[in-house]
Amino acid sequence: MSEPGQDRVVVFDTTLRDGEQSPGASMNLSQKLRVGKALAELGVDVIEAGFAAASPGDFEAIQAIARQVEGPAICSLSRSSKGDIEASWNALKDAPRKRIHVFLATSPIHRDFKLKMAKEEIIRRAVDGVKLAREKCEDIEFSTEDAARTELEFLAEVVERVIEAGATTLNIPDTVGYALPQTYAETLSYLKKHVRGIDRVILSVHCHNDLGLAVANSLAGVMVGARQVECTINGIGERAGNASLEEIVMAIKTRADVLRVATGVKTERLYPTSRLVAQVTGLQVQRNKAIVGQNAFAHEAGIHQHGMLTHRETYEIMRPEEVGFSRSSLVLGKHSGRHALKERLSALGYKLEDAQLDKVFGEFKVLCDKKKEIYDADLEALVIHGQILA
Ligand code: KIV
Ligand code: ZN
């Protein structure tokens, strides 16, 4: 929740649309509904449930989510065409809160090779799409696809014209993950300075991760005034993925001293939601993934474990419970020290004299060179079968 002096950032989750575009991540209707309900419980503000015109299955899933998921606004993506906008509207109309999301590419490479349209036609189509969507629905988002590779003056012109036409959220995608934090922030600052009416709309960021910068670029956007972030659970999405929701939310929470904004996300739901999305998509989360990876709160090095046993903040900037883990883990391996071993043995009920501990510690290190991780059963075997306590 935001505190006095802190702006609220709208969390727009696109796991079910852009996330589902990850190769191999498609979900069936009941899986999409489970994820939709989990996102509502997590406290996101907008769920982009799909792209209604893309397939009958996508249409049905958006309609089911619009009818059954309470809380967030439900959104459907549409190209800037009558057929797509009508499909989105038909899928969404039963939702208590709904948004139509219209997009059209603006960069030279997309204009010349994909759309084969001149600048004037891009503007005309964008404006017509927004006007049509606005006849159906009050909440309209427009995205200038590939904005990060678009000439700034033309981008500003398109943005100004779609705001005049009735768009309420203006999204500036880095579709191919090309931007750097500084260049992306400069693009948004340019728009804030040169576009009439920009203060009437919510400026939004949508960053892909091709250079591993999606979260950094999104936060750079927030620092210059973006107040919506588009992101996905576990960062799934086209190619290298989208900005990861859990990383953005926890950066905003942990560094509120600098960012001075807040989200409405219930952070303790992050880990369970991450597990659900991994399970239904089959896309496993890497062990060292920030916030939700198995190693995110695991400590192996002896010096770190000693620090953690003395004061957890020596090596943890967030509490694991804040993101839904039950506790930090001190993993026993070849980098672990006597303190951690003593602590674990004592938790297992073995109180050893110093000389006994020395002996187990020596045998433990020998074992560590043979095994990657040492489990409780291994320690019991060392103590009992090594006849330390016999
Ligand atoms: O990456 C992108 O440009 C998109 C838009 C359709 C918003 O996903
Ligand atoms: Zn995208």
Describe the protein.
- The longest helix has 18 residues.
- The strands form three sheets. An eight-stranded parallel barrel has the order 2-3-4-5-6-7-8-9, surrounded by eight helices. A two-stranded parallel ribbon has the order 1-10.
- The chain starts with 6 loop residues before the first strand and ends in a 5-residue tail after the last helix.
- The protein is 44% helix and 14% strand.
- The chain is built from 15 helices and twelve strands.
- The protein has 390 residues and is an alpha/beta fold.
- The mean pLDDT is 95.
- It binds 3-methyl-2-oxobutanoic acid (KIV) and zinc ion.
- The site of 3-methyl-2-oxobutanoic acid has 10 residues, from strand 6 and strand 7.
- 3-methyl-2-oxobutanoic acid binds next to strand 6 and strand 7.
- GO terms for molecular function: 2-isopropylmalate synthase activity; acetyl-CoA C-acetyltransferase activity; manganese ion binding.
- This is 2-isopropylmalate synthase.
- Catalyzes the condensation of the acetyl group of acetyl-CoA with 3-methyl-2-oxobutanoate (2-ketoisovalerate) to form 3-carboxy-3-hydroxy-4-methylpentanoate (2-isopropylmalate).
- Pathway: Amino-acid biosynthesis; L-leucine biosynthesis; L-leucine from 3-methyl-2-oxobutanoate: step 1/4.
- Keywords: Amino-acid biosynthesis, Branched-chain amino acid biosynthesis, Cytoplasm, Leucine biosynthesis, Manganese, Metal-binding, Transferase.
